[in-house]
Amino acid sequence: MKPKYRHELKYILSEDVARMLDLRLRTVMQRDRHSVSDDHSYFIRSLYFDTIDNDALAEKLDGVQFRKKYRLRFYNHNASLIKLECKHKHGQMTFKEAVTVNQSWVKQVLSDPYNILVTKNERLDDQFLIDYRLQAYRPSVIVDYYRQAYVFEPLDVRITLDYHVSSGVYNMDLFDPQSVSVPVFEKNQVVLEVKFNEVLPDFVWGVLQTVPALRMAISKFAYCRNVL
Questions:
Q1: Mean pLDDT of the residues in the chain
Q2: pLDDT at residue 214 above 90?
Q3: Distance separating alpha carbons of residues 39 and 16, to the nearest angstrom
Q4: What is the tens place of the pLDDT at every residue in 72-119?
Q5: What is the pLDDT of residues 15-29, one digit of tens each?
Q6: Alpha-carbon distance values, 84 to 69, 101, 106 (Å)
Q7: Cα–Cα separations (whole angstroms), residue 132 to 174, 183, 214
Q8: With the C-alpha atoms ordered 191, 197, 198, 203, is the resulting torsion angle positive or negative?
Q9: Are the CB atoms for 68 and 50 separated by under 8 Å?
Q10: Which residues sit opposite 7 in a β-bridge?
Q11: In this structure, are residues 68 and 92 in contact, taking their beta carbons and an 8 Å threshold?
Q12: Do residues 90 and 83 make contact, with C-beta atoms less than 8 angstroms apart?
């Protein structure tokens, strides 16, 4: 099946502007299903992988048009549901593959990845293991943040505000609740991401234009790597 790439626009906001945008977005879009806290945010922890030569980081910094990176991710400190994801990037277009994996599989990947059986069912986890071995992947950084998310399902539009982006320091244990993290943005800056297919509805674009935002080619992965 041909990959379905989506537009992905990224911006930096001040926290005050992000709070204002949150109030306006909630009037025209629905909350994401993960939004369970009082402020409708949810916690995301991701463990990213890179080669021993740091190819994923170098490709991002060099602006390589076609690139990909793997990560493990779970939400709201709940490690009973873990996603292995591969994010493909082509300019400002993105495509994401994902498969659910269990905690025992993750622990084996982190401790002894070369003894996991690779099947021939062409699942993402099998491709990840093949790439892990052939390209010498390794855990590279943990990225933590809190997200507020909004969706407009008829056109598959998704907007997110990511607060308190932090980098794991020398600890690649995805399940360590005491893992120390370091903020990567100054003055509590917030990352705004706008994702859509062919068209961004006028009413959504109109809301976004009501707040000051600086568009940037932001990578939380790269920012968090650079503080180590």
A1: 91
A2: no
A3: 14
A4: 999 998 999 999 999 999 988 999 999 999 999 999 998 888 888 887
A5: 999 999 999 999 999
A6: 11, 7, 9
A7: 18, 29, 36
A8: negative
A9: no
A10: 93, 196
A11: no
A12: no
Q: Are 201 and 161 in contact (CB under 8 A)?
A: no
Amino acid at 228: L
CA–CA separation, 208 and 215 (whole Å): 12
Q: 196 pairs with which residues across the strands?
A: 7
> What is the C-alpha separation between 184 and 45, in angstroms, rounded?
15
Q: Which CATH number fits domain 6-226: 1.10.10.10, 3.40.220.10, 3.20.100.30, 3.30.1850.10?
A: 3.20.100.30
Q: Which residue has the tokens 């990213």?
A: 48
- Tell me the one-letter amino acid at 63: G
Give the per-residue SS3 of the chain: CCCCCEEEEEEEECHHHHHHHHHHHCCCCEECCCCCCCCCEEEEEEEEEEECCCHHHHHHHHCCCEEEEEEEEEECCEEEEEEEEEEEEECCEEEEEEEEECHHHHHHHHHCHHHCCCCCCCCHHHHHHHHHHHCCEEEEEEEEEEEEEEEEHHHCEEEEEEEEEEEECCCCCCCCCCCCEEECCHHHCEEEEEEECCCCCHHHHHHHCCCCCEECCCCHHHHHHHCC
